[in-house]
Automatic annotation (TrEMBL):
Signal peptide stretch: none
Assigned keywords, A-Z: Kinase, Transferase
SUPFAM superfamilies assigned to the protein according to its UniProt record, in alphabetical order: Ribokinase-like
Protein name per the record: PfkB domain protein
UniProt similarity note: Belongs to the carbohydrate kinase PfkB family.
Amino acid sequence: MTELVTFGETMLRLSPPRGERLETTSDLAVQAGGAESNVAVGAARLGTDVCWLSKLPDSPLGRRIVNELQSHGVQPGIAWTDPDASRLGTYYLEHGGSPRGTNVIYDRADAAITTVKPDELPTNAVEKAEWFHTTGITPALSEAAAETTTALLQRAGDAGTTRSFDLNYRSKLWDPQTARAAYEDLFEHIDTLFVPRRDARKVLDREGDAVEIAHGLATEFAFDTVVVTRGLEGAVALHDGSMYEQDVFEADTFDAIGTGDAFVGGFIAERLRGGDLPAALRWGSATAALKRTTDGDLAVTTRAEVRSVIDGESGINR
């Protein structure tokens, strides 16, 4: 039986070599990137049986996405569509240090996912899974994507599947007021909420520190678990009235994109293995640390590597 099902858009990420600009480079690295598939890969690499649901054009680019995710152990559940009627979204990532910073340019309008409907997807996978995960990016893509997100969360709930949601606010997709209304409409269908502290403050208009934010959200919306991430300050989680805290593991940062998704993937994978909240936080944090050491969106790691981070081992593998 599939343990984890995720749903959302995956794009092709196009990146020039470090130190080069998009307007002058002659080379672009091509990789898959999308919040929900990032989580799927992170969990699959740690031994979880994972299915990722989405809609893609039946084209070389759509198949490129599927092939890459399959190579990491993710089973795709795809609604294929005519490539003449839709397209695959892409995004361009130009790495830059201070003072320039990193720049992200999206080209995702009219992507296949924007027309997705529940009955196009293998929703029986959701109903049979132990856990269903999606993010706040997907309902921002279109009305159809928002309706499908709600429908899948409802079907998961009806089947007794644990449901998680990462707020994952994107200012290039919608404004905070519109996003908050959409998120709060979904909250009744969510068991575990992941929310960056900055998004809780900016989008949900929450005040106080991470602990206060977690208590406030759990009280108002009756979540089973609230995980508030705090960047380099680590994360806190509230579950069954108890609060748990986890520091970050030290890591060199080659590419920070996908770090939050790696955290979620590690957290869910450990919960599905029967780990308690403190263990899930440790696995999430260690997976996120390892992700920062690799280029691309995906946490390409192993259980042994994550365990070594948790155990405090480091150095050269001999």
